[in-house]
């Protein structure tokens, strides 16, 4: 599990509420706490997650969010979705030792 500190542009309270709602729905996100709230500036959210970075970025993108460094923002309509990370390769099966 990791604890991330993310900044969010918050022109108004509704924007923060919308982003928090989307963030909580992302698979692997286990907690979202508001650290500071600045209308017309950048607010800070503490995000607890069990997801690895690539999975988190893909989940955020699916929720209409983009992570750029520490800045979390809504994805613009003209932005292409991120390419999902390839699944980890399975380990080849080892033959059973003969007895």
* Biggest sheet layout: 5 strands, mixed
The radius of gyration computed from the alpha-carbon positions, rounded to a whole number of angstroms, is 18 Å
Number of helices: 2
Side-by-side strand order of the widest sheet: 2-3-1-5-4
Note the gap between the termini: 42 Å
> Roughly what percent helix?
10-25%
If you had to describe this structure to a student in words, what would you say it looks like?
The protein has helices spanning 13-24, 53-62; strands at residues 2-10, 29-36, 41-49, 65-68, 71-74. It is of the alpha+beta class and 99 residues long. A five-stranded mixed β-sheet has the order 2-3-1-5-4. The mean pLDDT is 88.
Q: What are the salient characteristics of this protein?
A:
99 residues, alpha+beta, 22% helix
Could you provide a short overview of the structure?
This protein has 99 residues and is α+β, with helices and mostly antiparallel strands. 22% of the residues lie in helices and 34% in strands. The model has no long low-confidence stretch (mean pLDDT 88).
Topology:
Blueprint: E1 2-10, H1 13-24, E2 29-36, E3 41-49, H2 53-62, E4 65-68, E5 71-74
């Amino acid at each position: 599990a990791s604890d991330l500190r993310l900044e969010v542009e918050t022109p108004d309270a509704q924007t923060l509420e919308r982003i928090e709602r989307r963030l909580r729905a992302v698979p692997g996100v286990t907690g979202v706490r508001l650290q500071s709230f600045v209308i017309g500036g950048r607010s800070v959210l503490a995000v607890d997650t069990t997801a690895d970075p690539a999975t988190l970025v893909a989940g955020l993108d699916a929720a209409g969010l983009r992570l750029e460094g520490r800045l979390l923002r809504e994805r613009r309509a003209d932005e292409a979705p991120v390419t999902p990370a390839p699944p980890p390769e399975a380990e080849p099966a080892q033959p059973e030792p003969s007895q």
